[in-house]
Amino acid sequence: MAPLESVRRRLALLLLALVAGVGVLPGTALAAPAPGQQLNAADMTLLNGVRLAGLWEMPAGQMAAEKGQSKRVRQIGAEIARQHGVLDQLVVQAANKLGATLPTDPTAEQKGWLTEMQNATGARFDQIFVTRLRVAHGKIFPVIGAVRASTRDPIVRKLAEQANTFVNDHMTMLESTGLVRWQQLPPAALPPAQSDSLVAAAAANVGSGGGVQVSTTVVWAVFLLALVTGGYATWRILRRT
């Protein structure tokens, strides 16, 4: 009986060690999803991206509605702020259904953009507002498409469709100001190697009834490359204003 008692004692100590180890782990940002849901990094990238966009673009739009030099910028600012209020409610509802925790504050970079707008006036404010928002929308746009194409969750899929409508509308409005500097916008973010692989995969599925699946790696690669190229392009544009 002594060996059995020793084994039990060791198992008990191991269990206590595991519990203690869990207790010191940092808190996770994602609550346990409901059974049957298959959230992945790409899904959370979309949820967080949509939420963060609203957290800084709502105040940016309100600022433009108040201090924009041109009437068109003031109109667009008010409408973008209003629409982001609607989109923010949609992403919060989706997150609640999925058990996901969303950001509550803009990123440090986004706060810097808002400070930049606060310190600008006249035509310079209009240019900064249009440039910052147009580049930001260009970053999230390919992510929305990639998640819409690959997500396994119907709630995320619906949110991607809704976000796509809003983002496309916002880009169209910003472009209507005539302040978008097309030649200085960042190029398409999809790397050539990944583009070739997608084309090859599509060709392989012709006539086979199969579908092309976009992996999480592709989504993150597109998102991160968009951040780098978008940030550099924005810096170049604003340096010339």
Topology:
Elements: H1 2-23, H2 41-67, H3 71-98, H4 108-118, H5 122-150, H6 154-175, H7 192-205, H8 216-239
Shape: globular
* Count of DSSP strands: 0
Instruction: Give the % helix.
Output: over 70%
- Poorly predicted runs are 11-36, 191-195, 206-214
Strand content: under 5%
Counted by DSSP, the helix tally is 8
* Main β-sheet description: none
Between the first and last Cα atoms, what is the distance in angstroms? 83 Å
The CATH topology is given as Ferritin
Number of domains: 1
Q: Could you state the order of secondary-structure elements as H and E?
A: HHHHHHHH
Mean pLDDT: 77
Q: Write out the CATH superfamily name.
A: Ferritin, core subunit, four-helix bundle
Structural class: mainly alpha
> If you compute it from the alpha carbons, what radius of gyration comes out, rounded to the nearest whole angstrom?
23 Å
Secondary-structure arrangement, i.e. CATH architecture: Up-down Bundle
Task: Give a structural overview.
The chain is 73% helix and 0% strand. The chain is mainly α and 241 residues long. The chain has a single domain (38-194, 213-239), classed as Ferritin, core subunit, four-helix bundle (Ferritin). α2 (41-67) runs antiparallel to α3 and α2 runs antiparallel to α5 (122-150). The longest helix has 29 residues, at 122-150. It is globular, with a radius of gyration of 23 Å. The N and C termini lie far apart (83 Å).
